[in-house]
User: Fold these one by one.
Assistant:
Number 1:
Amino acid sequence: MRITDIREATASISSNIQNAYVNFSQMTVSVIAVESDVMRHGRPVIGYGFCSNGRYAQGGILRERLIPRLTAAGEGALLSDDGGNFDPRKIRDTMLANEKPGGHGDRAVAAGALDMAVWDLVAKIEERPLWRLLSERYNGGGHDERVMVYPGGGYYYPGKGLDRLQDEMRGYRDEGYKVVKMKIGAVPLAEDLGRIEAVAGLVGGNDVAVDANGRFDLETALAYGEAMAPFGLFWFEEPGDPLDFELNAELATRYSGALATGENLFSLQDARNLIRHGGMRPDRDWIQIDPALSYGLTEYLDIIQMIEGLGWSRRCLIPHGGHQLALALAAGLQLGGSESYPGVFQPFGGFADDTVIVDGWAEPGEHMGIGMEAKSAMFAEIQRLVG
Amino acid sequence: MRITDIREATASISSNIQNAYVNFSQMTVSVIAVESDVMRHGRPVIGYGFCSNGRYAQGGILRERLIPRLTAAGEGALLSDDGGNFDPRKIRDTMLANEKPGGHGDRAVAAGALDMAVWDLVAKIEERPLWRLLSERYNGGGHDERVMVYPGGGYYYPGKGLDRLQDEMRGYRDEGYKVVKMKIGAVPLAEDLGRIEAVAGLVGGNDVAVDANGRFDLETALAYGEAMAPFGLFWFEEPGDPLDFELNAELATRYSGALATGENLFSLQDARNLIRHGGMRPDRDWIQIDPALSYGLTEYLDIIQMIEGLGWSRRCLIPHGGHQLALALAAGLQLGGSESYPGVFQPFGGFADDTVIVDGWAEPGEHMGIGMEAKSAMFAEIQRLVG
């Protein structure tokens, strides 16, 4: 059993949207195919992966460092001990050999895309949906039949007023979502409060999450927190710089509502620092590490073990990214939920075409592997790019 | 005044050495030329830069993200307010537009190489050595005539015994160095103690720094610390994972000798977390952030301001990397010193050909800009690659 080819390409997910920090007009992702010599139904089994949105494609690191190390690995070095399948952890260790510690950024994104393809391949070889494989291997068979999901939306874009913001949120409700999310921080507080009020008036403050995308200094975060407190929001996301743990800890002592952060932390070590130094409260706060930006599901398994070791429940984990990998993880490992991107970062955002959202819950489905073949527009693009 | 061309290429700095974490047989750096339409002596002024060693070339990020943003910048957007030179901070902000916060790794390395070329260009347009320009602009004219330097050496390589380790250290002493550094952590403690003893016996324990390259868990770091205490070492470098601030803080309460770390932290935010959470002691410890891996000199100016704001002296800063940029920074901004690489990472390691080391001190010299033209083997390679 061996990997016969690894193909990578860059796909555009550009959109005319912006958050408080960046616009997405040039945004790209890396798409990967890992082809094996295992045959099913007369064809080689191929695993597919892509990196999550927000950090650009990583073709250079993939082509120059990660993929050549896998290609150079000796016969059997990437297989499970019994030789019956590929071993994602051995593959991870091989692709990251001779990489120094620290500096978890673009490299983690590149590895995340490749690791996703490896897990898709492994689950397909087992002829199981990935979430069932994870449940059996790592969760004693426990799993969730349905996963809490919420749409990452409410972006700023040119000419978007309160009416169109409300229309967008009404649309999510019509699609079956309950909790909705909106961006804040790109306009003055008073204007953002009007936007929050417009959405809260429509769906109720408890079901509105707001996301500052790391924009605020402490003073601004506190001012927003105080002004938003009456809404009883679902959460207040990424108030300050993702690495400003002190800001987060200070805010947590003064804002009693839920906080959420972690989409811009890309490793076990960074996630551990958030828990150790960020003042996050296990009884209410949310951790949003995205496996498809953070060395992949393999590292995410270590992150789950780390947070449980520090007294947290894995139900506090709700991955960023709105992709099928996060949905599979949440179902098979019983996390708190998953983001969804029904409207943006197409064709990569969102779940399989047949996924039905009811009262804010999604079922993971029975597609083999991660199930990318069941998301037709995305899979057509993947096939066009990497076969 | 405008940038007419930005060229980048990948150079090999492979060597048959290893530290406790990685081997360097495949190590590369990015080399950059930023060409302007400013003419001096009948030729366009060109700034040169390269990324520091240890984190590989970053051609993908440079070609796909950073360089195109500079190429697309409007007339004048990259110039100082008076139009008399390029503005490194505006160039930095432009090259990093639409990059999300957090995730400071390969991107910081790519930006560090480009920022080095920009500062070389800016200083050459001013017809000044960079260290003099920095002294005048940011240090009220203050500067050091000589900089404490030490060779990054003592690597493990196949067949290297105590004799050859001592020969290496004797060679550094013959070249004029005083403090020498050696790697630890790739072999058992007892064997490393024999190595340390061999070097301390030669140069005195006070002049020996040891570097674990982030390899140890807390228990091992404490065991090494206890065993090494009698030597009175110059410092104990990167004992644990660079992001394990808790480990570092715990070690600092129990190892009374100097600690040094920071070469694998790549941003203002990560450096601030080390100061806030890492237990480092301003009266004895060393911070080794490398500007050529960490968004460049522009970010480093902010790091100096940050540490001074937190009550530290800039004399505690001693950049990793052993390159001419670090020497210029240390002289012009009066830091604690600079690493040197007389023997490894050639042709990029070390200083100008005419740099004389006396009693562990180096003079920065009067070459224009960073002075890469005065390091002939390196400059020949730079010219071959990017003209």
Number 2:
Amino acid sequence: MKYTLYYWPGIQGRGEFVRLALEEAAVPYVDIALVPERRGGGAPAISAMLENEDESRPPFAPPFLKVGNQLIGQTANILQFLGARHHLAPRDWRGRSWTHQLQLTIADFVAEVHDTHHPLSTSRYYDEQKPAARKRARDFIANRLPKYLGYFERVVERNPAASGCMVGADITYVDLSMAQVVAGLRYAFPKASRSALRSTPLLASLHDRVFARPRIARYAASKRRIAFNNDGIFRRYPELDG
Amino acid sequence: MKYTLYYWPGIQGRGEFVRLALEEAAVPYVDIALVPERRGGGAPAISAMLENEDESRPPFAPPFLKVGNQLIGQTANILQFLGARHHLAPRDWRGRSWTHQLQLTIADFVAEVHDTHHPLSTSRYYDEQKPAARKRARDFIANRLPKYLGYFERVVERNPAASGCMVGADITYVDLSMAQVVAGLRYAFPKASRSALRSTPLLASLHDRVFARPRIARYAASKRRIAFNNDGIFRRYPELDG
């Protein structure tokens, strides 16, 4: 089954959580962000899909994955699909439900990270909402960051398999996403995340283990991995870093 | 299998999406919000669960549903579980994935509704972030509200079953949630939602049909249904209503 990933070019964004799962599973896929526009890729290809009036099940926004004729949207939903198909989730439904629950909590966390630089409007530039961004980021660093990281640390700590992973004995898609969040936090908030991650050593080590996995390491070192930058979710604005 | 729903007392909040599914499915459940504290219910019962150090799979926040010994958290994840078990979702995996995708888009929408009155910090009062809330609400009404509602209207319109529902021929949990969102928008933004819903007649009529269903109508008229109020997600602050 051929997979095509649709996500905006030039940023990791939410598409990166899907890419990490595809790379770890060693599934071949076409990444529309890397296909030149003149060959039918890039942003115009995404807009054409979003605006296709013949699509009876249109996604609201990227990322979405084309699987045969089906479009699967919403990051956590795509990962749920990939996890079940490509051995990146537990086999029992309780384990799958728990993995998905954690992924949805990561999605909430990521939305809050995004809102630190866009607290008033996603359609306006950061520069137009700087004072509000400072307030929101201050609250994020003081309250939300330690709350989320502390929670995920407990999840690893209490995993009965004591595997250093979040669920069960083996790696799942939620470990890949968690490692990506740690990497993003280190980029966006070098000061605040250093201090916060000191209290969550299991997450720091989960990050290292994920990015040391052969396929992930190869991908991260490749040209396919877009660098963090200030157009994505995780942005480095020193004035927001506590 | 006995179900117990854990959600904060006094507000509909995200718990209401779960309640509507349980009510429509006619599944018996204990609603911890309605159990007095002296009988082991209310907020202390929720906090005790969240802080239980023996729980290897703790939820991050309410709502969560206790099913036997398992705790299922994240609204959309709970609904995915209930939908499959109680005939509130399609039988085929494509249909289930699509229903879940729509529910996750509703979750994003609901988070943006919440942020209209709490753009800077969830841990501070509305009164402490009024000017920012005005800006965020203005953007919400001008851009996000019509974008989301227009999207969901198209979903109903393009449903090949032409059932007036969002997915397939029969009602699913996402129809219940959509109707609840319409009700919430009418409470919170009477002016802006009246104008927006004029362009989305299928959603307006979906709302009416859902709340006319016998079990939902009975529930909505009962004392179990908490009224909308200014402690929940949907709050009526006239200064935010365009």
